[in-house]
Amino acid sequence: MHAYRTHNCGQLRSNHAGQSVKLSGWVFRKRDHGNLLFVDLRDHYGVTQVVVDRDSSAFALIEGLKLESVVAVDGQVLSRGSDKINPELPTGEIEVKASKVELLSEAAELPFPIFGNAEYPEDIRLRNRFLDLRREKLHENIVLRSQVIASLRRRMIDEGFTEFQTPILTASSPEGARDFLVPSRVHHGKFYALPQAPQMFKQLLMVAGFDRYFQIAPCFRDEDARADRSPGEFYQLDFEMSFVTQDDVFAAIEPVLHGVFDEFSKGRAVTPPPFPRITYKDSMLKYGSDKPDLRNPIEISDVTEIFRGGPFAVFAKSIENGAVVRAIPAPAAGTRARSFFDSANQWAKDEGFAGLAYINFKGGEGGGIAKNIGAERVAQLVSQMNLGPNDGVFFACDKPLNAAKLAGLVRTRVGTELDLIEKNTFKFCWIVDFPMYEWDEIDQRVIFSHNPFSMPQGEMEALETMNPLDILAYQYDIVCNGIELSSGAIRNHKPEIMYKAFEIAGYDRSVVDEKFKGMINAFKYGAPPHGGSAPGVDRIVMLLADEPNIREVILFPMNQKAEDLMMGAPSYVSEKQLRELRIAIVGDPHKSN
């Protein structure tokens, strides 16, 4: 017999009854029934109930063991009686009567129990992540992650893509988030950077003639954590294609994403290809966001003209100064208590906005600001928005971007509080036609709004003849249930267009030649039209696992301060290491925080 096991803890069934077996695993739970001790033995594959008789030499050993100790059990498989079958376990039709138990490793007192799904402080969980990973839900999430990655890889290969690995040590880029810098020991004063994404390398692969590339790529960005973003590092399904239009990119990745979500959906509906396409402009107007959750049926309306020059002076004066008014319907909410509307106004103020006006209709009669705007304008509002006699409506009045932001937050709040969000579905869409540039109010200049390497729609003619703020780019995001899975673009593969695009954003040719020399030089030797995207693996798994926080689908995540509490990173290094790198620490690092 094998030294540790003949079967795993999820393998035995009724057809194994009568066999002598050996199992190894963790003591998950114990139940003392007097003359019998029942032990749930757990390993990666599942749980098997082990029965230890009080007369057995193993009884005293098992009785005294702390939970999560590791044991090997020799015994015989017994069928349970029909009244004792556990339908919750795949192994629930059998149990193993122990004849011998060997202690392989004894556990110390646990900082938190493994059994159950109770919540525990994050710092305790992360500091003891190896224990946290034993818990059923988290263990399942990590297995799901592996299965999703295998499925993505298989589907990309089936679509004709070839997997390549791009460098981890590279050059710092002036665009995007903060880089993680790595000092060079050999080249004094110089630094490598960990890649924020394989952006330039994958484009160089297209110039090199590889046509269809992908990889499950690690990416590194020194940015703050949030629920759907892990600080430090993340993984993405990075891909690039040659000789393609935007439509070709969509047609290639949609079957992959639909297939993966359908495979792991557990019966939840998935948007079939082709996914809906929504322009950035329409998305900001109708949903108040460039990553709309289409499970929410509420659509925002522009009602600026109804309030322009009207008796509601607060809005009318703001409109004269460049503000707009966005209206967010609240279906059948008019009959709710006034506190529903007043609390929303206070919530908006707490979020940093001026407030939130509203009308609450009851049997067609309008409350709130209805009396301030007059019956005629109220009628226009009802007609334009197709409001019912018992609907409510909120109003966001501000400069366009702020109004859109508030309206989008209100849409989400109303949809959630009125239980309008469609359940058990994954709703995909593409957001297209992003602006190439935007205005930076702080620096008072034109900057890139999205990806500086995107091809402007209209190419050189647009750059030379149009107002930069009116130029659209071949940039696109894919969104699922309000979560942005990736950004992508058809790339700017022509050197002269790239120089001009960067010139508009305030970079002269020398900056492009210095900061992006690998790519700009390559483009001078014949570059194919190309494009791609990079859906986030962590976010895909987070959605499929129905987890609200991305840390629940990552093996060893950092906390919100970008600290690895288990391994003690980041950490101080020795003076010897600093001397080798010729780096001096300025000030007392122990007091820097």
Number of helices: 19
> Taking strands numbered 1, 2, ... along the chain, how are they ordered across the largest sheet?
6-9-10-24-23-22-19-12
Please give the share of residues in helix: 25-40%
Distance between the termini: 57 Å
Relative strand content: 15-25%
> What is Rg?
30 Å
The beta-strand count equals 24
Q: Characterize the main sheet.
A: 8 strands, mixed
Structural class: alpha+beta
> Runs with pLDDT <50, length 5+?
none
Fold and architecture overview:
- The protein has 593 residues and is of the alpha+beta class.
- It is built from 19 helices and 24 strands.
- The chain has an eight-stranded mixed β-sheet with strand order 6-9-10-24-23-22-19-12. The protein has a five-stranded mixed barrel with strand order 1-2-3-5-4.
- α4 (136-158) packs antiparallel against α6 (246-263), α4 (136-158) packs across α18 (537-544) and α5 runs parallel beside α17.
- The protein is globular.
Describe the SSE topology:
Layout: E1 20-32, E2 36-43, E3 46-53, H1 59-64, E4 70-79, E5 94-105, H2 122-127, H3 129-132, H4 136-158, E6 162-163, E7 181-183, E8 191-193, H5 199-207, E9 212-221, E10 232-242, H6 246-263, E11 269-270, E12 277-279, H7 280-287, E13 301-302, H8 304-307, H9 313-320, E14 324-330, H10 338-350, E15 357-362, E16 365-366, H11 370-373, H12 375-385, E17 392-398, H13 400-417, E18 425-426, E19 428-432, E20 437-440, E21 445-448, H14 459-465, E22 475-480, E23 483-490, H15 495-504, H16 509-515, H17 517-523, E24 530-533, H18 537-544, H19 575-581
Parallel strand pairs: 3-5, 6-9, 11-18, 12-19
Antiparallel strand pairs: 1-2, 1-4, 2-3, 4-5, 7-8, 9-10, 10-24, 13-14, 14-17, 15-16, 15-17, 19-22, 20-21, 22-23, 23-24
